[in-house]
Amino acid sequence: MSSKMLFYILKRVLLAILTVWIVITVTFFVMHSVPGGPFVGEKAISKEAQAALEAKYGLDKPLFEQYVTYLKDIFTKFDFGPSLKQRGRMVIDIIMDGMKTSAKLGLIAAAYAAVCGIVLGAVAALRRNTLLDKTIMVITTAFVSMPSFIMGSFLLIVFSTKLGWLPANGASEGGLILPIITLGLYPMAYITRLTRSSMLDVLGQDYIRTARAKGVSGAKIIFGHALKNSLIPVITYVGPMLAFIVTGSMVVEQIFAVPGIGRQFVSSITNRDYTMIMGTTIFLATLIVIMNLISDLLYKAVDPRIEFD
């Protein structure tokens, strides 16, 4: 590994830490500036009881002192504190429990979205302006334009309510099939269009025409040059997409009653569980930062011509 690459990795890691710190800071102060409090909705709670609860969770201390303590706990112990509503449970434990389902759901959805998207995009590019190309573009445009809650509701009505082929509850056996399809349709359609556009651009490059003039086989041109070099924009998209999908779509998990992190996040907003809201937001942001970093490092493997600055 060259010194330039090591310097680039170190610089990106430091920028990633800075980004996470900014997210933590903004999330912390925004949540503490929201009117009301986490215990306002408690039934018939007295001022003394509310003061006792605030003292228990350290909310009676000066704001900056709370911030320093919160920051220290995250960076030293990766501890987001206790949940204010799910008494006796730590936020990180709730997140990890939800991630067991969300990670399985997201990884499968991301895998099929990436594979199908790249294959369909390459086929559309190689069959440009044919009926097959136009059909793929029409279908993917529809998937990109359709919100996930509409697609999820449609699949739920057709395959669960009308046909009865698949369960509607994401917690039951086979219940993740419809959520996986719903989660993967939009990124699959987007990757298809991205791959097609990038591959058409690569196929028009001079080195592709030179390879053809030298008699290089069509398969080698497509898989050895065109497809490989057209994946750079796809990698840029796949990193953040994977982080977002793995943490679970809030809407999709609500529709199919999937016991994942997205559903926990929605319930924490409804219940004013401030520590859970902050913990989930920071966790998701950190995943996105890490995936972006990995995506940047993968560029070199895909295209050796790329230099690290």
Short key terms for the protein model shown above:
single chain; 309 residues; mainly alpha; flat
What does this structure look like?
By secondary structure, the chain is mainly alpha-helical. 74% of the residues lie in helices and 0% in strands. It has 13 helices and no strands. It has helices at 3-33, 47-56, 63-77, 91-126, 131-145, 148-162, 177-203, 206-213, 218-230, 232-246, 250-255, 261-270, 274-302. Helix 4 (91-126) packs parallel to helix 13 (274-302), helix 6 (148-162) crosses helix 7 and helix 7 (177-203) packs across helix 9 (218-230).
List the helices and strands and how they pair.
Layout lengths: L2 H31 L13 H10 L6 H15 L13 H36 L4 H15 L2 H15 L14 H27 L2 H8 L4 H13 L1 H15 L3 H6 L5 H10 L3 H29 L7
State the order of secondary-structure elements, H for helix, E for strand: HHHHHHHHHHHHH
The radius of gyration computed from the alpha-carbon positions, rounded to a whole number of angstroms, is 24 Å
Roughly what fraction of the amino acids lie in strands?
under 5%
Largest sheet: none
The number of helical runs is: 13
Residue share in helices? over 70%
Gap between N and C termini: 15 Å
Number of E-type strands:
0
Structural class: mainly alpha
Give the averaged pLDDT, no decimals. 78
The low-confidence parts are none
Shape: flat
